[in-house]
Amino acid sequence: MERKVLGYIHFRKGPTKVFYFGLFQPISDALKLFSKRVFKGAKFSFYLFLGGPLLGLLLMFFLWVVYGGFFGVFGRFYSFIYVFCFMSLGVYFLLFCRWGGNRKYSLLGGYRSISQTVSYEVSLIFFVLSFVYLLCSYDVSFFYFFQRGYLFCFLSFLFLLGWIFVILAESNRTPFDFSEGESELVSGFNVEYGGGIFSLIFICEYGMILFLCFLSISLFFGSRMFYVKFLGFCFFFVWVRCCFPRYRYDFLMFRA
Fold first, then answer.
1. C-beta of residue 133 within 8 angstroms of C-beta of residue 82
2. DSSP alpha helices (H): ranges in the chain?
3. Rounded distance, CA 68 to CA 28, Å?
4. pLDDT at 71
5. What are the φ/ψ torsions at residue 194 (nearest 5 degrees)?
6. Quick one: CA dihedral 72, 78, 82, 84, positive or negative?
7. Alpha-carbon dihedral angle through residues 227, 220, 180, 178, given to the nearest 10 degrees
8. Burial label, 16 (beta-carbon count in 10 A; 0-12, 13-18, 19+)
9. What's the CA gap between 148 and 19, in Å, rounded?
């Protein structure tokens, strides 16, 4: 979806060669990545190098437990506290990835990524706690059903704008993609990664983007036509990437 949307917004077609309309392009890319040899340097800390992407993938899957089944095992009572706890552990994913490489470029990229993640997780938690105090509930499903009559996106429009900035920074998406700022950082904290381990990092990041889209719809847009709104929010992430240039890192941290 992202490649096709990026292509058409930039007046080009995007993937077209692999099967009809380029639908099998992601599958062919995945096969190529997982079949490539993983580079291992002499100074690498192998367990941290391998454990970082696996930890990030595991944390991402744990977050989705909130929405499993009918809002999952943790979809009642204290589900937001559960989300906060596992999102705060995402810093260790970045820490292990950059420390395992044992290189100065990954170290610099890791410093920037960790400081950005910690700063905007605090903002994200304060945004959610504002609604928690309003409704006196930590239950995700309670927010979902509470908005059948009226939507928070209209009652708290300024909060919605701030929330969009926060989740873009939290998910390392353009215009705040400093974790993978290729032009300045030579791919940032993941510069030594390749092959299947590299793809695990991006599976983790795109899983987090989808989770934040789900969370945004639950908080601001209610239950009606939920999946249509969800796809629209995913399209918004891609549209922002097409239309806005990368922000300056010092400006981003100054506004944290």
1. no
2. 2-9, 25-35, 46-63, 79-88, 90-101, 104-135, 140-146, 152-155, 157-170, 182-185, 195-220, 226-243, 249-254
3. 29
4. 46
5. -160, 170
6. positive
7. 170
8. middle
9. 42
Query: What's the token pair of residue 98?
Result: 């950059």
Q: Which residues of 187-210 are buried (b: 16+ CB within 10 A; e: fewer)?
A: bbbbbbbeeebbbbbebbbebbbb
Given the structure tokens 């420390």, which residue do they identify?
Answer: 99
Q: Which two tokens stand for residue 212?
A: 């934040």
Q: Which residues contact 171 (CB under 8 A, 6 or more apart)?
A: 205, 208, 209, 212, 237
pTM here is 0.88
Q: Which residues of the chain have pLDDT under 70?
A: 39-43, 68-76, 179-187, 255-256
pLDDT of residue 199: 86
CA triple 230-145-211, angle to 5 deg? 35
Convert the pLDDT of each residue in 16-25 to its tens digit: 888 888 888 8
